[in-house]
Amino acid sequence: MTVKNFGVFISYRRADTAGHAGRLVEHLKSQFGDQVFLDVDSIRPGANFYDVIRETLNRCGVAVVLIGKKWLEREASMPPFGDPADIITQEIQMAWNLKITVVPVLLDGASMPHESTLPAQFRDFSRLNAIDLRHTSYERDLQALNDNLVEIFGGAKATAIERSLLKIYAPFLGSSFARVYGAIVLGAFIAALWGLGELATASLGLSQRGVESLASASLFDVEMLKLEAALVGALSGAFTAFLGRRSVRWWRYATLALCISLAELAAIGLLALVYVSQVPNAAIMDLFERKTVVRSQ
After folding, report:
1. How confident is the model at residue 135, as a pLDDT?
2. What is the DSSP letter of 74?
3. How is 146-205 classified by DSSP, letter by letter?
4. Distance of CA 274 to CAs 55, 211, 271, 277, 282, Å?
C-alpha cells in the first residue's frame, strides 16, 4: 500500500508513557519536522479533542502507539481500553478506520497485550509486529523505529555516514533538520531546471543555426558555454537530489529531480557526440572550455 500522507501520530497514555513520548517526539521531529503530532503540543485549549484527533489522523500515514507496562491498567473511575469513551481506544479505532499503519512501540520491557486481555474487536492488535524501545539500548532501538517508519513511507534509508552527521547536527538544528532536507530538494530542482533551460536553448540553437551553436554562450551566464552550464546544473541537481532522497517527506520530489538530472546528462552526452561528429577537427572539450565562448548572433 502506498502511503500518501507523511504525518506521524503519537498515541500514548499520560499516566504510563508521557516522559517517553516527549523524548521520542523530539527525535522524530528531526526527521519529519512539524509532521509529528502529539496531543499535548498540538491541541489548543477549548478545541474538540475527538474532532482534532480525527482531522490530524487524516493527515498522517503512521500511528505510533507507545505501550508501557501499565498501558492496560486503568483506575476504576476511568474507562478501560475498548470502551468508546477511552481516548486511546478512539485513536486506534480511527487509525484502523482510515487504514493508517499502526506501529506498537514497547517501552522498557513492556510486552504486547495478549489477545485474551483485549476486547474482541481489538484482538488483532496483539498480532501486530512491535518495536522495543529500551533504556539500555535506546539509540539502537530508536534507529530501528526510524528505519521502520522510513520503510513504511517509502523513503531511502540513511547511510552510516548520514547517521553520524545526524547525531552531530540534530541537537543544534532540532526540528529544522527536516527543513534542511526540504531546502536541499528545492536546490536540486533549481539546478535541474537550470540545466533543462540550457539544454532547451542549446537544442533550439542546434535546429536554427547548426551544431556550431552548441559552442555559444550560456543563456544565463555569458561567461559559460551552453553545454558547460547544462552540465553544471545537471551534476548539481543529481548530487543534491541524491542527498534529498534521505528525506522521508521529500524523497519522491528528490527522485524526480534526480531523474531529470540524469536525463539531462544523457542528453548532454548525445549533443556532445553530435558536435564532434559534425564539426571538423572538433573535440568534446570545445564545449566545456570558457575560452571558446562564441556569442550567439
Report:
1. 84
2. -
3. HHHHHHHHTPPPPPHHHHHHHHHHHHHHTTHHHHHHHHHHHHHHHHHHHHHHHHHHHHHH
4. 56, 7, 5, 5, 10
Q: How far is CA 175 from CA 26, 159, 169, 234, 289, in A?
A: 8, 20, 11, 30, 43
pLDDT digits (tens, 9 = 90+) for 260-278: 999 999 999 999 998 888 8
CATH code of domain 7-154: 3.40.50.10140
Percent of the chain surpassing pLDDT 90: 27
Enumerate the domain spans of the chain. 7-154, 180-292
CA torsion 146-152-158-159 (nearest 10°) is: 110
The rounded distance, in Å, linking the Cα atoms of 186 and 198 is 19
Neighbour order of strands in the sheet with 36-37: 36-37, 7-11, 60-67, 101-107, 131-133
Report CA torsion sign: 27, 29, 31, 36.
positive
264 by Cβ neighbours in 10 Å (0-12 / 13-18 / 19+) ranks as buried
Q: Considering Cα of 196, then 201, then 207, then 211, what sign does the dihedral take? A: negative
Helix axes 176-209, 160-173, angle to 10 degrees: 120
Q: What is the pLDDT of residues 285-295, one digit of tens each?
A: 888 875 544 44
